[in-house]
Amino acid sequence: MHSTTRIRLIEPSDAEPIAEHRLRDEAAFRQWEPEQPADFLTAEGQALRIGRLLAGHRAGTVWPGVVLDGDQVIGQVTIGGILPQPHLRRGSVGYWIGTVAQNQGHAGRALGLALQLMAGELGLHRAEASTNLENLPSQRVLRRNGFTPYGVAHSAIRLNGAWHDGLLWERILSD
Length: 175
Hints:
Shape: globular
Radius of gyration: 16 Å
Number of strands: 7
Helix content: 25-40%
Order of helices and strands: EHHHEEEHEHEE
Strand content: 35-45%
Oligomer: single chain
Mean pLDDT: 91
């Protein structure tokens, strides 16, 4: 099967398709993500969020992208916590794919493209990620892209009213 997965910088016009995915997939993502304000599921709320992400991009602290299948927005990939200083040069990557496009390899391909961007255009040395301990699909995506686990962050994220541990992942980009 020929893949048309690609990533690009998020744009204000992506608010509506992102909100549609997030509203439809709210229950599916609830087990992996913290509770969000009600407007997170609306195009208006996503437009505000995109504005904040693009401000972070202009400041050099985040690269917020969308994942596309052809011309359709099917998810997001975000490189956050960017530390470009010569002695650090790292960023943390996160991603999600809408349920209508899952299990087709998009997450792995999008992560691979994000890693190329991190090593190339962003000039980073180290990629980091974290997953919920039970999020085996995301862990498979990370492993397939050369990440290895290196520790557990205890009580790191609050989900459904309880604190959960996170598995920390790393990949060196410039070896």
